[in-house]
Amino acid sequence: GAWTRQVDQFALQAARHQAPGQRVEVLVGPLDARLRLAPCLRAEPYLAGSARLWGRSRVGLRCVEGPTAWNVFVPVTVKVFGAACVAAASLPAGSVLATADMAQAEVDLAENPSSAFTDPARAAGRTLTRAVTAGQVLRESHLRPRIWFAAGDAVKLVAHGSGFQVASTGQALTPGIEGQPARARTESGRIVVGSPVAQKEIDLTQ
């Protein structure tokens, strides 16, 4: 009843705050039927821990005014709609994605914890680790990460700031796996950490 509406409004507001500019929908699930809550004049919803309201989540609800203080967790499903890359046709595992294999569609980005690709250029050229069906959202977990360089390779080290870019060279100490930090040694012997961003290139911008 009233609490469901309260949790719904609270979750909707919090989810909109976390996904600004995107269409958000919230479905409030039922409380455990075995719970017998004491009467309460005023209950307050709150975010449980550092919970991000994304996909299947939960919202805390506590009685702040009533004979018995109680605290429960209400299951919620948060849908966040946005444009993302989907497979234009069914593709087997092992396929190398080309731009023509992708289409844009409005999808529920929060349906899966693995992030969806919004830019086809970031997915193009990568290998599918599993088969996908036409219309399926392409997510980070579907694709093998690119390996931009091997440990021991000479690499270009770049750092960007507002209106400037600094570049130098160094030697990779770890493989350059996309999405994972890589370490390198500069010519002066300093150890630096950055993100592998291109063929034999590490971005040191923090």
Task: Characterize the structure shown.
- With 206 residues, the chain is mainly β.
- It is elongated and about 70 Å long.
Task: Outline the fold blueprint.
Elements: H1 2-18, E1 23-28, E2 42-47, E3 55-65, E4 71-87, E5 102-108, H2 120-123, E6 147-149, E7 154-161, E8 164-172, E9 176-177, E10 182-186, E11 191-198, E12 201-203
Parallel strand pairs: 7-12
Antiparallel strand pairs: 1-4, 2-3, 3-4, 4-5, 6-9, 7-8, 8-10, 10-11, 11-12
Largest sheet: 5 strands, antiparallel
Helix count equals 2
Topology, number of strands: 12
Which descriptor suits the 3D outline? Answer: elongated
Helix percentage: 10-25%
The N- to C-terminal Cα distance equals 47 Å
Order of helices and strands: HEEEEEHEEEEEEE
Poorly predicted sequence stretches spanning 5 or more consecutive residues? none
Rg, nearest Å: 23 Å
Mean pLDDT: 91
Beta content comes to 35-45%
Judged by helices, strands and strand pairing, the structural class is: mainly beta
Search tags:
five-stranded antiparallel beta sheet; 12 strands; single chain; 206 residues; 2 helices; mainly beta; five-stranded mixed β-barrel
Can you describe this structure in just a few lines?
The protein is mainly beta and 206 residues long.
